[in-house]
Amino acid sequence: MTDAIDDGATLRHDVTCILIECHLDRGLREVFHPMATRQEVERLAELMARRLGPLIGGRYVPKRDERTARDKAVWQRFNGRNHAELMREFGISRRLLYSILARRRASSVRAS
Fold first, then answer.
1. Which of 45, 48, 59, 110 is the most exposed place for a label (fewest CB within 10 A)?
2. Cβ atoms of residues 53 and 59 within 8 Å
């Protein structure tokens, strides 16, 4: 299941990056509503990843609420020295752990 979750996160990230690049590209702006926000583009990426997943190998894309709860729990439990413990407990790879921590750090910096 860990590989499937990582695949889902990777797929969602890839689709998000592509859509954000398109959203920022002046030549492709007509594809998006002129007032589309980054959050709306990210939501579109999530929906696209969910629909693409089964078509490209059955990748599992967890629901946003599930991911948010898991990420919050990982962040709260992280103490700087318990990487292996968290990966085992939450069934995630090192790559996904670092991705979660990076997202949480970025959001906590923005909140301050």
1. 110
2. yes
CB 59 within 8 A of CB 4: yes
User: Residue 70 is which amino acid?
Assistant: R
CB atoms within 10 A of CB 93: 14
The residue type at 99:
S
3 contacts: CB under 8 Å, gap ≥ 6 = 93
The tokens describing 25, both together, are: 């590209």
80 vs 41: CA distance, rounded Å: 32
- Nearest CA among 40, 52, 42, 47 for reference residue 17: 42
pTM exceeds 0.70, yes or no: no
Element (H, E) at 92: none
Please give the structure tokens belonging to residue 7. 């695949």
